[in-house]
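I wish you would study the pair of lines that follows with an eye to the fold:

===
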Amino acid sequence: MNDTNASEAIPALYTDLALHPKKDFGWGTGRENARALGYAAHWLDGLPERAWESAASVGNPLSLGPIRPGEVLVDLGCGAGADLCIAAQMIGTTGRAIGIDVTPAMVEKARENAALAGLSNIEVHVASIEATGLPDACADVVISNGAINLSAHKPCVFQEAFRILKPGGRLQFADMVRASVSEAASGESWASCVAGTVEPERYLKMLRAAGFIEAQLVGFTGYKTAASTIGAMFKASRP
C-alpha cells in the first residue's frame, strides 16, 4: 500500500472504530484490553464505558513518568480520548489536556467523552500528528498510544513532538514495533498497525536525530496486531 492509499485507509478504519466499536477488528480494544495492559482499576472504572469502547491501546504511556497537576499534556493520535480523560484528571483544573487526531469521527467522540466525564480542561483538534498547529514549547508532556507507526513520516512526528515540548519536557509513548528485523510485506496493512512498524532501534535513532536525550525502550507490552509486531513503550526528554 502506498502512502496515498494508507492516508485514506487509516481515517476510514478509525472512523469505523469510532462508530462501530463492537466490531471485531482483529486486535484488542476497549476497557478489558486496557486492563490487560496495566491500567489502574480506578482509571478504568472511573470513566464511562463509552470512553473506553473505541480505545485501541497498545500500552500505557501514562505509566512512564509522573503527570503533574497544572501541566499541559498533548496526546498525539488521541483517538476517542480515554488516555486524554485520564491525563485531564491527573493534571487537574489548572492544567490542560490537548488531543490531536486526524480522524474527525474520533475527535468528535473524544469531545463527547470529555463532556460525559465532566472534564472541562480538555480540547481536541483535527490535525496531523506531523503538523499539529500548536505553538512552540507549549507542552510539558507529549504522549501517544499506537499512533506513530501509522505515520509514513515518523521523523516528522518526533520533530513535531520536540518542537511543541518545553525545555525539559517529556515524551512518553506506546507503539507497535517490528518483533524482528524484516521488511514489511506489500500486502500488510498500514491501518491495522502492521505495515508501518519499524524496529525499536530505529525509533531510538529517530528520537536522537530529532534532538531528544535519554531516549530509551522501556519494555514490551505483549500487545499484537500480527505475528511480526509487538507493543513497546518508549520515553525521552527534551534538553
Helices lie at 3-19, 30-36, 41-46, 49-53, 82-91, 104-116, 154-164, 200-210. Residues 72 and 174 are 19 Å apart (CA to CA). The mean pLDDT is 92. The chain has one domain: 3-237.
